[in-house]
User: Which sequence fits this backbone?
């Protein structure tokens, strides 16, 4: 490893809901410029893990470190969250223009208008939605919406991007082109990412490391090709497909 | 049938002549109901948002009370507010019974649950993950609330209309706490009841037309704003 | 959203102006709450007298017109400063119980029994009690106020004197409404009712009912002004109540009362009686 201190590290994550344990991840590490993929059937805990990394999950206990320092609770957690960005399966855009949506994260951080404008323009270029700048978010197709959501996430120049199956609801053509653009943007920005996925192509294209979950527990982790060679359960077997 | 036609005819005559008393009554109706609506917004929007977003023991109980409050009969509100405001009642020392202030108070009591209830529904109607998305973009709690309220602005404008509509048209509470005193607490609704009771149907119809016009006018204005906000 | 905000700002400005005016209007010690009946209000008599009184005395009168029953209840609770009512039996009980400080005769008019021109119960020209008997025996529809007002009390007194109890009978309909509305109900259903002459005269055109029985001494409708006992309720405006009561029996007011309605209806609606002994009126 080039950098000994991981970008993010989580230890002894335990999530409880209604009195019972729903997720247990003893150790999770994310290094700079790396992408970790979370795979597993629905309900296995992928979303919960992502939310826990963003400190957005109730009922989660465990230790979370950012570059070796513990992430605080309470009001200072906002400072930590401003180093991240998150993209969900639905675009979850605001009822505004595409432009305003992409600028949202920057405006929250109180950035000055000219700088906001510059970054927004650059991001929209990168995700090929510059021609939609003035369009209302309500009038976008699924693919356009997700592009906007990704542009919004990137505009804030986060150190970590968390993605919860962001390409799942897109049609194959939209999906392929968006994965391309996303991969290039990630590479260009030099950021780290954690992406939950149901799609083998995404994992092969984007991930350096894979963590496989089942029923709230980690059952396997390793490089994509390692897991593909020796899948630990039928789901993984089907996932990597022989 | 001739009575109705005659009534409408005389009503229009009174309106066109801009009868002084009619104008005073109309202006008071507008002032009282607008004040009450503004108060109900100041109370209802924040509480509704809080109830929609937070989680604490007893939350469901409070929300069902709000929902019950939405259907409170105005005359019942009027009765209880009157009893409280009586000289010898708990807050009689305020000496506001039979004044427009008391009417604003009673109408605010009527309108606040309506605004709160619709606010709760409006915020809860937003996509479930939107709150998380906003926080994940680095928002403070305050920023998040502001964004959610902005996102729900269309149904929240409906809350305003519902609150206003509920009080501009009510008569029971206004009659009881106001006393329908000429030149002081007489509003369109109470005047209509009185004129009907006296048998002055033409005047009653005139007042009704003005009331309808007022209610329509304000709602039209708010609807224009609401629909304008709708992205093209 | 900007437009909405601007609108709200404008409205708030207007409200604060209005609110300020509302508060300024509260005189505190300069306010009198007058509890009176719907007939004095609806006839327009108070609209004539009150502005004059207010100008001369500097008091501001809040007129709450409800039935005599409710007016007296308000007096009992100290929620009014002076009463102007027309329910003598109830007033006497009120005074006997110590709620009132003084009770002075102000004016009278009379009640009349009205009904459809066809007069199915044949009460035309007959005395009040006999008329009630005939209405009951013929089962003709009778609209009652049913609201403890002075008119209602008078009506109940007449049933009692006739030895009848119309309660629960199908032809006896209790509206719980004011005089004008009760007259409308009677007119609509072509029935009989007891009304004060003033209200009847004001509505005669649109009603289609005729006066069938009048003039009987039992139909006298007497108004008194009652000041309240401040020993019981220290918060009442004693000086204001006295000023109003004094005004109502003053020569100026009495003259105005006597001439009220003459030009409009051809005859006076009320007859001034201040200072007369009750006996001279046949009470």
Assistant:
């Amino acid at each position: 490893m080039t950098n000994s201190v991981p970008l993010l590290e989580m230890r002894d994550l335990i999530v409880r809901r209604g009195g019972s344990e729903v997720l247990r991840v003893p150790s999770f590490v994310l290094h700079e410029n790396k992408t970790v993929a979370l795979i597993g059937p629905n309900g296995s805990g992928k979303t919960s893990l992502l939310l826990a990394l963003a400190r957005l999950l109730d009922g989660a206990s465990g230790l979370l470190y950012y570059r070796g320092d513990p992430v605080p609770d309470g009001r200072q957690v906002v400072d930590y969250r401003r180093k991240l960005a998150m993209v969900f399966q639905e675009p979850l855009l605001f009822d505004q223009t595409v432009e305003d949506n992409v600028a949202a994260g920057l405006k929250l951080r109180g950035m000055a208008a000219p700088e906001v404008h510059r970054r927004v323009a650059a991001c929209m270029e990168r995700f090929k939605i510059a021609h939609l700048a003035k369009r209302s978010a309500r009038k976008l197709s699924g693919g356009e919406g997700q592009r906007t959501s990704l542009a919004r996430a990137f505009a804030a120049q986060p150190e970590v991007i968390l993605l919860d199956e962001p390409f799942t609801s897109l049609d194959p053509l939209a999906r392929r082109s968006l994965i391309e653009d996303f991969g290039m943007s990630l590479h260009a920005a030099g950021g780290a990412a954690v992406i939950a996925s149901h799609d083998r192509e995404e994992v092969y294209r984007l991930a350096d490391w894979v963590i496989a979950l089942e029923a709230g527990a980690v059952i396997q982790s390793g490089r994509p090709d390692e897991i593909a060679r020796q899948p630990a359960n039928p789901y993984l077997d089907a996932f990597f497909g022989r | 049938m001739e009575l109705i036609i005659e009534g409408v005819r005389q009503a229009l005559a009174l309106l066109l002549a801009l009868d002084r008393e009619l104008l005073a009554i109309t202006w008071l109706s507008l002032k009282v109901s607008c004040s009450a609506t503004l108060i109900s917004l100041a109370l209802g929007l924040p509480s509704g948002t809080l109830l929609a977003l937070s989680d604490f023991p007893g939350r469901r109980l409070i929300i069902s009370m709000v929902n019950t409050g939405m259907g409170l009969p105005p005359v019942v509100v009027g009765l209880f507010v009157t009893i409280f405001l009586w000289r010898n009642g708990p807050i009689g020392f305020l000496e506001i019974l039979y004044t427009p202030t008391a009417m604003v108070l009673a109408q605010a009591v009527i309108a606040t649950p309506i605004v709160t209830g619709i606010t709760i529904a409006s915020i809860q109607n937003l996509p479930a993950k939107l709150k998380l998305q906003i926080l994940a973009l680095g928002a403070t709690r305050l920023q998040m609330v502001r964004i959610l309220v902005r996102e729900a602005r269309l149904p929240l404008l409906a809350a305003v209309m519902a609150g206003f509509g509920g009080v501009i048209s009510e008569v029971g509470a206004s009659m009881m706490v106001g006393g329908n005193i000429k030149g002081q607490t007489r509003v369109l609704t109470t005047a209509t009841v009185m004129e009907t009771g006296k048998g002055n149907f033409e005047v009653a119809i005139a007042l009704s037309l003005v009331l309808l016009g007022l209610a329509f006018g304000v709602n039209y204005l708010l609807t224009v704003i609401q629909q304008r906000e709708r992205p093209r | 959203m900007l437009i909405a905000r601007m609108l709200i700002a404008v409205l708030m400005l207007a409200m604060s102006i209005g609110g300020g005016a509302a508060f300024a209007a509260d005189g505190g010690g300069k306010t009198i709450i007058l509890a009176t009946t719907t007939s004095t209000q609806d006839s327009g008599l108070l609209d004539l007298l009150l502005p004059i009184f207010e100008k001369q005395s500097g008091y501001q009168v809040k007129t709450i017109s409800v039935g005599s029953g409710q007016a007296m209840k308000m007096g009992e609770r100290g929620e009014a400063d002076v009463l102007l009512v027309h329910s003598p039996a109830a007033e006497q009980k009120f005074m006997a119980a110590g709620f009132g400080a003084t009770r002075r005769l102000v004016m009278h008019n009379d009640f009349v029994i009205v009904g459809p021109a066809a007069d199915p119960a044949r009460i035309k020209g007959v005395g009040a009690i006999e008329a009630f008997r005939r209405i009951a025996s013929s089962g003709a529809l009778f609209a009652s106020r049913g609201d403890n007002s002075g008119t209602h009390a008078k009506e109940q007194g007449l049933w009692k004197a006739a030895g009848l109890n119309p309660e629960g009978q199908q032809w006896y309909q209790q509206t719980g409404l004011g005089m004008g509305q009760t007259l409308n109900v009677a007119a609509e259903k072509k029935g009989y009712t007891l009304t004060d002459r003033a209200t009847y005269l004001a509505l005669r055109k649109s009603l289609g009912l005729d006066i069938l029985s009048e003039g009987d001494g039992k139909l006298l409708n007497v108004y008194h002004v009652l000041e309240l006992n401040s020993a019981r309720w220290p918060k009442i405006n004693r000086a204001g109540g006295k000023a109003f009561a004094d005004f109502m029996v003053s020569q100026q007011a009495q003259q105005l009362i006597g001439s009220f309605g003459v030009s409009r209806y051809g005859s006076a609606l009320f007859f001034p009686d201040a200072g007369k002994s009750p006996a001279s009126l046949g009470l």
Summary: The longest strand of chain C covers residues 100-115. Residues 2-25 of chain C form the longest helix (24 residues). Confidence is low (pLDDT under 50) at residues 20-27 of chain C. Chain C has two domains: 31-108+221-281, 110-219.
